Amino acid sequence: MNHMKFWKFIPIVALALLSSCKDSLTIDDLENRTVASGYYNSSQRVEQAVIGGYVNLRRALLANYAWVMYGEVRTGDLNVAVNYQQAVASQQLTADQRNVKQLTDWEYFYDVIKDANDVLDIVNKADAGVLNTYERNLFKGEALALKSMAYFYLARIWGEIPSAEKNNFGSRLTIQESVTQAAVWASEAQGLLPWRLINDDGIESFALTGVRFNKTAISTLLAQEELWLGKSQNAYDMLNKTFTVATLDSLSNFGLSVGVDRRTEIPKLPLDESIVSMSLDRFNEIYPVGDGRRQSMFNVSTSDKKATLIIQDDDILQLLPARELNLLFAEAAWRSGNLSEGKTYLIKAAAGATEDYTTLTEATFPDALLQERRRMLVGGGQRVFDLIRFGKVSTYIPVFTESDVQKGAAYWPLSANSLKNNSLSQNSYWLSKN
Questions:
Q1: How many helices (H) and strands (E) does the chain have?
Q2: Cα 249 to the chain's mean position, in Å?
Q3: Phi-psi region of 391 (alpha: psi -120 to 50; beta: other; left: phi over 0)
Q4: Domain range spanning residue 195?
Q5: Cα(133)–Cα(137) distance, rounded to whole angstroms?
Q6: What average pLDDT does range 410-433 have in this prediction?
Q7: How many structural domains does the chain have?
Q8: CATH number, domain with residue 167
Q9: What DSSP character marks residue 71?
């Protein structure tokens, strides 16, 4: 499989076997799917199981434009031309609106976890004649990475969540517990995943590498998780160990390949200019006149009073771009007590900025870094997660007071289905809105 549009070629059996048929998911539904004994008797069939996890991750993030609804739409940075945009931008997340209700369910994320755990069982039981060493490491690494990413999204979106693991199935996990376990899986995956994937002909494939987890992507995810946990020194050490002069030519992006999904409606062009845009006022606020990103990243229409993103490849929605690495290095260095090195990486990341970042101090560095993450990662759905981590939610979502944030306003409310058969309860902020 060396096609960018690789989702369009997924065997239907993979979707039938590994995707839930429910409209919503409660934690106890996860054990209800089975496959015929002896089915996974070839590397191609095991790969089908792996791909099922990517399919569900794509559904989790693209259905209802979820990734930007969870990210930039809540802050008003991006507009999406759908009728539920305003409800999300106004923080009306308990609105009696079908799409908003769907966004409040976590069905597909738990499907990803279920798929990943199935793959781990399959790989562990596969005979030596079924998988070679490369395939065994790749598939196991991808399953661990997908599971790590799913838990990380769940924790950042909803806060406390139930576990889907056999050892503590259904038990309540704090955000710290979820992300800590996610980081353990990401660290294990990092030791298994290659810099670049090879196709069926045994040749390194840039196309395949860009739509499946690779070493750059899992290292980026692990750094994000360590920083979320406040383990900046761990992030700093890992980044320096992984990304050296010798590995510069090995870097890769990671995103979701876009194509037709037979089960649910997802956007074929997620960041299409006719749907996703930034108001001209917000654009000028974020990217002042003279900023080099105005021309390199956007098409600007003064008549329509909006800016739209320039997308290099319509077939991929980038989630973990290699351009984030310098931003991660900057944050890890600064939080580890090395402001000077943090500034060096921030300046490198912010090529085109009008600001003089050489003058930053300990007090001004975090706001500059947060702004550059806003600029460089636009369209990637990271914005609200960054505001939570930096303690800036009420600053940039002024409808929330700091007291609201302390009561859970930054996290999405739990759906009625997600509260069934577990020990979770609605956080106090959203409980008062029901």
A1: 21, 8
A2: 24
A3: left
A4: 6-31+41-254
A5: 6
A6: 86
A7: 1
A8: 1.25.40.390
A9: I
pLDDT band at 173 (very low <50, low <70, confident <90, very high): very high
Angle (nearest 5°) at CA 76 between 72 and 82 = 80
Q: What is the pLDDT of residue 192?
A: 98
Which residues are within 8 A (CB) of 215 and not within 5 positions of it... i.e. 6 or more apart? 190, 193, 194, 195, 242, 250, 252
Residues 6+ apart with CB under 8 A from 354: 288, 289, 290, 291
pLDDT value for 423: 77
**Residue 167 located in a structural domain:** yes
Query: Three-state SS string across 113-147, please?
Result: HHHHHHHHHHHHHCCCCCCCHHHHHHHHHHHHHHH
Closest CA to 4 of 384, 315, 404, 418: 315
Q: Decide: residue 253, CB within 10 A, 0-12 exposed, 13-18 middle, 19+ buried.
A: buried
| Residue 69 is assigned to a structural domain of this protein | yes
Whether 250 is covered by a domain: the verdict is: yes
Q: Which H/E stretch holds residue 334? A: helix 325-335
Instruction: Determine the Cα–Cα distance for residues 389 and 185; give it in Å rounded to an integer.
Output: 21
Indicate the pTM of the whole model: 0.92
For 392-396, 398-402, 426-430, which range has the lowest pLDDT when averaged over its residues? 426-430
Phi then psi for residue 333, to 5 deg, are -65, -50
pLDDT by residue (tens digit) across 33-81? 556 667 888 999 999 999 999 999 999 999 999 999 999 999 999 999 9
Cβ–Cβ contacts within 10 Å for residue 340, how many? 10
Please give the pLDDT value at position 105. 92
**What pLDDT, on the 0 to 100 scale, is given for residue 34?**
57
Answer whether residue 212 is part of any domain: yes
